From TrEMBL:
Naturally occurring in which organism (per UniProt): Methylomonas methanica (strain DSM 25384 / MC09)
Region named Disordered: 59-80
Recorded superkingdom: Bacteria
InterPro entries: Integr_conj_element_PilL (IPR022260)
The protein's name in its UniProt record: Pili assembly chaperone
Length: 189
C-alpha cells in the first residue's frame, strides 16, 4: 500500500516516516555546531554589557585557576552509559568487600574459619594474640556460622568472635587482631 500524499492519513504516515528516518540518520561531526556560553551570552547583550561580562569571566577564570577542580574521570562503556573511573569502596578498603560464603566442613574451629575468610583479603591474623582470644579461637565453629552473608567481611569476622571482642586492623601491615571489649577502654588497646 502506497501512502497517498493528497489524503490526510497519507500526510500523517509520510510525516511519521520522515521523522523516523531523520531520527535514525547519523549526525556527522561537521554538522554539529557548538556554541559556547560566552558566544550565546554575547549575542543577547549589547557591546558595553559584553565587555563587562568578559571582564567578569576573566575574574572568575582566575579564581578557578587558583582552585583546581576535583572531577572524577569517566569512561564511556556504551552508547548511552558511562562509568566513573574510580576505585570501588571494597577496593579502597578490602574489609568492606561484601561476602556471601559457606565455610567448608574442613574448618572445624573459629580460628580456621577466620583464616578461611581472610585467605583472599590480603590481611593476616596477628600472631600476638591474648590468651582470651586464643581460647575462643580454639572452640568449635557453631553451625549457624557456616553460612555467612551477604555482609561486609569485617562484619563476618566480628560475628565469629562477638560479643566479647572488637576487630582492629592495621592497614599498613595488613594485620588483624581482636581486642577484648572492656567497659573502661571501649575495645581500645
Amino acid at each position: 500500500m502506497n501512502p497517498n500524499p493528497q489524503h490526510p492519513a497519507g500526510l500523517l504516515i509520510l510525516s511519521i516516516l520522515w521523522i523516523t528516518i531523520a531520527g535514525c540518520a547519523p549526525i556527522k561531526p561537521e554538522q554539529t555546531q557548538f556554541v559556547s556560553a560566552q558566544d550565546n551570552q554575547a549575542s543577547r547583550l549589547g557591546t558595553n554589557q559584553v565587555l563587562r561580562a568578559a571582564t567578569n569571566n576573566k575574574l572568575s577564570a582566575n579564581v578557578s585557576r587558583s582552585q583546581p577542580k576535583q572531577s572524577t574521570p569517566t569512561i564511556q562503556t556504551g552508547r548511552y552509559s558511562t562509568l566513573a573511573a574510580t576505585p570501588t569502596p571494597a577496593q579502597r578498603d578490602p574489609l568492606a568487600v561484601i561476602i556471601d560464603v559457606t565455610i567448608p566442613e574442613t574448618c572445624v574451629s573459629i580460628e580456621q574459619a577466620i583464616r578461611f575468610l581472610l585467605r583472599r583479603s590480603g590481611y593476616e591474623l596477628d600472631t600476638a594474640l591474648s590468651v582470651d582470644i586464643i581460647e575462643l579461637m580454639a572452640k568449635p565453629l557453631p553451625a549457624v556460622h557456616r553460612q555467612l552473608g551477604p555482609m561486609p567481611l569485617s562484619d563476618a569476622l566480628t560475628l565469629l568472635v562477638t560479643p566479647s571482642f572488637v576487630l582492629q586492623d592495621d592497614p599498613i601491615k595488613r594485620l588483624l587482631r581482636f581486642v577484648p571489649i572492656d567497659g573502661n577502654r571501649g575495645g581500645r588497646l
